[in-house]
Structure formats: C-alpha cells, structure tokens
Amino acid sequence: MVINEDVVRRRLSEGQPCHGVWSLLPGVVSAEVLARTGPDFVVVDLQHGAATEAELPGVAAAIRAAGSVPLVRTRSPQFADVGRPLDLGAGGVIVPNVRDAEHAREVVAATRYAPAGGRSIGRLSGGADQPLVIVMVETRTALDDLDAIVRVEGLDGIYVGPGDLSLSLGLAGANRSADLRQVLSSIIARAVSAGMPVGVHAYDGDDAARHAAEGATIVTVAVDSVSLGKVVTHHLDITRGRQETGYA
After folding, report:
1. Which InterPro entries does the record match to this protein (predicted)?
2. Where do the domains of the chain lie?
C-alpha cells in the first residue's frame, strides 16, 4: 500500500498506529536514508533541527520517493511558519507551542484554503490540499485546556513534548520522572477516550513501545542524531574492548 496523508489520517482515525522517525540532521541523503528504513512518516524538525526551509522541496520529495510521508515540525505556531512548509512539500505539520484550543483552531485554519481557513494559495512543490495537522501539548496552559483541544475540528492528532512540558509543570529532573510519567499516561488516556490520536515524543524504541502500549498511535521510534550517536558509540566500544583484551 502506498503511504500518503490520507492513509495516515485514516489509520489514525481508526485507532491504528503509525510509526515514524524524527530528523534533526540536514540534507536530502539523510532524509532518504531514514525514509528507506520503512517508517510511515519522517518528521523534519525546523524548530530544533539543522534543516532549512530551502532544503524542504528536495527533502520532502526524497522522503516521498522512499515511501514515507514527509511531516515538518514548524519553527513556531505563527501563521507564516505553519503555511510555508506546506508550500514547500510537507504533507503535514506538527506545530509547537500551542497555548490552548482557540490557538489550535487558528493553527488548523492556517493549513486550510478558504472558505475553510486562511491558508494563502502559492504552493511551490508537492504538499497536499488537506495536510495532516498535529499540535503539540507542551505547556501548562495547553494541558489545562486539553479536553477542549482534543475536540478541535480538523485536528488530526496531538503530540506531547515531554521535555518542555516537564519544565512548564516544574517536573524536570530525574527525581520527578515518575510524576511526569503519570502526567503523560493521563494525557494519553484522555486523548484516547476522546477519540483523538496522540503521540509522545520518544528517542528510542523502548520509550516508544511503552507509550504505544498505553494507547499512543503517533509513534516516534527514533531520532536520527541520537540513534547515530548510540550506534557509533556501540561499535567504538566493541572495537576498543577487543583491542584491549587482544581479542580479534
């Protein structure tokens, strides 16, 4: 089956999981390598990653050609920052720093052409008429308004940013990790109960599997820069250990 925005939207709406990888590294080759591993989607991170908007047409095309849906975490929730990646080939957006339900409605409107929204006509490359729209829950205000956010029409999912949420709630640090896990579990449960697809950002398969077991269906299984560092460290440790013991 060809994976596209409509397939991902349908699967999520039916409660089926979609698995993706997160890209902080720039370049078409990096994006293609990630997409060829077989994820349903690849997220290009413009907020914290090294990729630029100028790269998006090529990066998005490479992801699609390899069989995945190109999503973009936007630089901000501002109107222009939401619309521009969609004009440059993204099949959907994951929008950070959303304050509340009214803000989420503004984000949805920025992804839809009139009369459904205010998106400006001018798509340059690829993209979609009905892109996927996911907003991030990573602030106290968004958490306080969660029950309203999950009812926003046109929203395809919510995505929790545990790092920023922990800071906003005063739960940062290893000694508060259990409290944060309870919050994350509660968000997943509330979203699932409301029929809203939900994901929690994860850096490896173990964390991703734990969130999925609780009901998350937007499942990020790896972050490219983190995975690369772990793999290289692993192989360095193996080689150095064998050299030190004289084993070959």
Report:
1. Aldolase/citrate-lyase_domain, HpcH-HpaI_aldolase, Pyrv/PenolPyrv_kinase-like_dom, Pyrv_kinase-like_dom_sf
2. 5-223
Cα 30 to Cα 63: distance, rounded to the nearest angstrom: 10
In CATH, the architecture of 5-223 is: Alpha-Beta Barrel (3.20)
**CA nearest neighbour of 182 among 206, 166, 158:** 166
Q: Exposed (0-12), middle (13-18) or buried (19+): which is 10, by Cβ within 10 Å?
A: exposed
CA dihedral 35, 37, 42, 48 (to 10 degrees): -100
Q: pLDDT tens, 117-158?
A: 999 999 999 999 899 999 999 999 999 999 999 999 999 999
How many CB atoms neighbour CB 235 within 10 A? 10
Give the CB-side neighbour count of residue 193, counting CA atoms within 13 A.
9
Residue 211: active-site member: no
* Catalytic choice (48, 103, 234, 235): 48
Q: Model's pTM, two decimal places?
A: 0.95
